[in-house]
Amino acid sequence: MTAAVDVDVAVVGAGFAGIGLGIRLARRRQESFVLLERAHGVGGTWRDNRYPGVACDVPSHLYSFSFRPKPDWSRVFAPGAEIHEYLRDSARDEGLDPHLRLGTEMQRARWDGARWRIATSSGTYRARVLVVAAGRLSEPRIPEIPGLSGFDGPVFHSARWDGAAALAGKRVGVVGTGASAAQIVPALAGTAEHLVVFQRTPPWVVPRGDRAYTPAERRAFALDPAAERALREELFDEAEGAIGARRRVRPDIDRLRERALAHLAEQVPDEGLRARLRPEYEIGCKRIVISDDLYPALGRDDVTLEPSALHHVEKSTAVAASGAHHPLDALVLATGFWTTRLPFAQRIEGRHGLLADRWADGMTAHASTAVHGFPNMFVLNGPNASLGHNSAVYMIEAQIDHVLGALDHLGAGPGAPLEVTAEAEEAYTREIDAMSADTVWLQGGCRSWYLDETSGRLTLLWPGTARSFRARNGTFDPRPYGQPPLPAAPAGGA
């Protein structure tokens, strides 16, 4: 039997969060660490999502590490392949290759009283600290549709795109109208013989305003890093301004709604289609789609908007909840991910049992990062650590700072592990619930993937500004862990 490999830190996942933490660990050169990645390449969401039209909904210069800027982004909203290349280049150039364990899936992680024992598909690791960076958009959610498994043609999820499926000239169904579908539908419209889009609920859509950066702009950013930083700050401040609408502040939410309705009226002249595309819930309650080409695609003669869900499948016919029958050659499931019931929680065992059981009534974590009963474990991009209005990368960086502060507190010795108290976690959860109570996510008249299915709590998003998240959680405070604060540095320096 092969002996377990001992490391200071084991990081599960090599997407934005895992690579970002890996870079910071590699630069500080204080801890031994591994990045455990089940796939055979880095990139997470941007490795997995290869569907036609895939791109980011956050401006490129904001959707990148502040400590590793990229001055030559090709467009205002980068294509998915370019983001994936950025992450691959970041991992390679920052020296993460020796730390990467690709094709290594975490099968079980168990706290043994002193360290985490992590069983993987490629051996066992013993780590003083476990950081879960598996993300919330990694496990496709496949709906339970009667007859789906017996469909005559190819069926695949948007995050598991089948490049071998020849869709040109075929009758294709797209199930869903969320962010992924809004990019897939325009890309397939005109290529497929006919496209049927199954819409359970219409999304709110606002203009995208994407364009290519000119060669002169890209050269200017490369020659003047301060200009690139200024653009990033401008984009950040603009995004932060959107939180008022999510808090249902007037006139902020009215302006956002009017902008979306004007976009709908301008791009959809057909009154009947426009009525089917107007949401009945408040704007922002579900994820807002950012697109300039979804509405024109849905207005094409070779595209049918089916204003109901896919109910069941009969061989090569998709039957909608409305009773309409649609003969199809292929089905694309743009049906989202398991976001509030994260599958990795079934594989992590703390002092009192599985993380999945600890989260049975919804995900919680102190500082959106640490869970009582799971010593020396930190979760990146987990409970209430996402945003509905700004860049996830900013949030990830704040959590990385929190984890690095915890590592500093642990120090090099064999001291007691860090475990957040139950009282601290409960107090933080009450704080989140109070902040969420009057937001559009809870008061907007919809059920979304931001909310826990059992409790109805907002467990995915931080219900405030990105800046407030960093101020609240970006610095490690040992007191909620039952630890004394670190001594202040001597006045006047060394």
TrEMBL record:
Gene Ontology terms, MF aspect: oxidoreductase activity
Keyword Oxidoreductase set for record: yes
InterPro entries xrefs: FAD-bind_Monooxygenase_sf, FAD/NAD-bd_sf
UniProt xrefs under Pfam families: Pyr_redox_3
Protein name as it appears in the record: NAD(P)/FAD-dependent oxidoreductase
Gene3D superfamilies membership: FAD/NAD(P)-binding domain (3.50.50.60)
Keyword Cytoplasm on entry: no
EC number: 1.14.13.-
Region (Disordered): 473-494
Organism of origin: Actinomycetospora aeridis
Domain of life: Bacteria
Keywords for this protein: Oxidoreductase
